[in-house]
Amino acid sequence: MSTDTSHQDTRTPSPPYGYSRLCTHSREQQLHIVAEFHSHKIRPSRIAYRVGIDIAFIEELIAGEIEPERFPQLVKYYRTGRYRQRLRESSHSKGVARYELQQQIEREFVQETDI
Predict the structure, then answer these.
(1) 3-class state of residue 25 by DSSP
(2) Measured between alpha carbons, how far is residue 54 from residues 32, 41, 90 in Å?
(3) pLDDT along the chain (115 residues), means of 10
């Protein structure tokens, strides 16, 4: 078995023992979970810790190494849902505060979708 030193994968395969959970989700569910957490700007290490999904799998999805067409579509879907949720929550504010909050939400959504 030869090792290519120019392209070694430095990612850890999973969080250290004691810092992770056993993952009970199917691969399809994991894909959706990672997309949803990523759309909420949660770090890969935190996703791995909370749900038990292999951190290398999470990083490969985010880097576009696995599911390069489907994962960004899922992230876009969940970001749009998050955008709508934040707009609904902003309706509790009144007047100028509501307008400014909605403008901030709009700017953040446009910035996230341009990434």
Answers:
(1) coil
(2) 14, 18, 35
(3) 58 56 82 91 86 86 89 90 87 85 86 67
Assigned token pair, 102 = 């909605």
Cα Rg of the chain, angstroms: 18
The pLDDT of residue 35:
92
CB 75: neighbour CB atoms within 10 A? Answer: 21
DSSP states of 49-111 = HHH---HHHHHHHHHTSSSTTHHHHHHHHHHHHHHHHHHHHHTTS-HHHHHHHHHHHHHHHHH
* Per-residue tokens: 106: 């709009």
CA 1 to each of CA 4, 13, 56, 67: distance values in angstroms, whole numbers, following the listed order: 10, 20, 22, 28
> For residue 97, what pLDDT is reported?
86
Rounded to two decimals, the pTM is: 0.68
Cβ-contact 30, 48 below 8 angstroms? no
